[in-house]
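Appendix B, example 12.
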Amino acid sequence: MPENDPLWPLVTSTRESCLGKDRCPCWDRCFVKQAREKALKSQVVVVNHHLYISSMALKAESDSIDGMLPKADLTVIDEAHQMASVACSFFGEVFSTRELEELMQELRQVGLSKVRDGADWNRLYDNVVRGVRNLRLEASLIGLTEGCRRALKDIPALGELHPAMQIIREAMLQTAAALRENAGRDEAIDNLAERHDLLTETMKVWLELIEQFRQAPEGTVPAMKADGYVRWIEATPHTLRFNATPLSIAEAFDGIRSTEGGAWVFTSATLSSNRDFTHFKHELGITEATEASWDSPFNYWEQGCFYIPEMPDPQNNTIEHTRHMVEIIWPLIAAAQGRTFLLCTSLTAVREAARLVSERLEANGNPYSLFVQGEAPKIELIERFREDGHGILIGSKSFWEGVDVKGEALALVVVDKMPFTSPDDPVAAARGEVLKAAGKSPFFLEALPEAVITLRQGAGRLIRSEEDRGMFVLCDPRILKKGYGKTVINSLPDFLPYTTQRKSTGIFPRAGSLRRGALSLVLRFTPGGRTAPDSGRPKRSASFFWRAGHPAKSAGILEQGDSFFFDREKK
């Protein structure tokens, strides 16, 4: 079942919807409660980031709450590069129209089954849902369309939403009155009333904020209070989300570590940028720590190569860049006989790449299977790709990490461009403004380290065992031209480098990783089908081809469609 299937909310119990020990008739048989009790008795407990932070957040809310997990003598956080973003989601505040609709749907179902005579539950539901739909329509008219993420300060017309928000609030107040009249008649109704009260209060806060915009002079926005949060709105196909996100969780996370005590270990293959942990420590408020970094057990130089094609720099035109990319990588896909991950930085790029690749597959008789994010659940897509053996998988952020395809099924990983956070992202922009005000560089302290860590995750999909071989392609020549290029290169695995740009050969050698005098190989793809390396090619580069199982092939000519890039056979 796809992750965005509307059935999920109907079969999911959350912290808000759980009736708790005193009210739930199935408490003794609850598998979540049983798992927690088992954890309390265990010497080693393994949980995901969300459950861990959720437990810590519960403890932070009240000294009388023990949370879901016991205190530990040692806490090990694996994939720790994700911890800051997970913590932000828990320590922030969100009002979602989808959450309100789901609550009203649940209330209607419980009301009709438990206290049918208590109120006109259908009417209460319809009033709120109609209000929500009207709000989404009004939001689209002021530019809050699907996929939009905007800080309040960038929405001067936000005050125009006030009438639609007021209609929803009045409908919620009518629902609240009905719930008060039925208080004590059923435990489920009482629990829903508590949840409804919380949403009503959150709604009130946002309504008051939007009222400030309504009263502001036309074309202006009211001053936002400096409370350490950035407030922004996100529009998706199913909801409007009103967010208050902390600019930093360093203080909150430092409080968690102080409260929990014990020793802490943070580990990840992508915890640093250019072997520097400053960005990670700053995010989590870590001031003193013992740092260590170890080389990978894989021999990246022997197992893989890194190719930067010659193409225009990616600009704001995602569709045009994607067209260039597919045109350039198609010979590589053919050489690899499918077996490709195409990792994109946006859903727009995913859709366009899928369309272009599908057209080329059809024109060539559909030699390889195509798997595209959103067509099936992530786990199913990966399994089908693995079993197919010659597939092409196109995906965005969720496929950059946590995906493990060992063996023959994957030989080519392509990234469309450097995964910089969009300059329009309201949270990144607000954090950048704070850094600028302090005289610091948002790009080098935030944007670049984040992008490098994400890129390393993407590159890490290629070599998953000591037998794997393949090519990593980054379709972004900016790293060969910009000052930050060496930081990017030095942070990636030590793949044998290739580039079409002669002037960039000096960017790749790095102390301790390449042999003395090593240069990047210069390849020049030509539409005619033959590619000639630049003269003076270092023998180390040529030896990669021989080790790949083609000792008889000329080291001077690379034919379009050749598969020796991707052979796993050793000499």
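The longest helix spans residues 187-215. The chain has three domains: 28-89+249-284, 92-246, 300-420+452-559.
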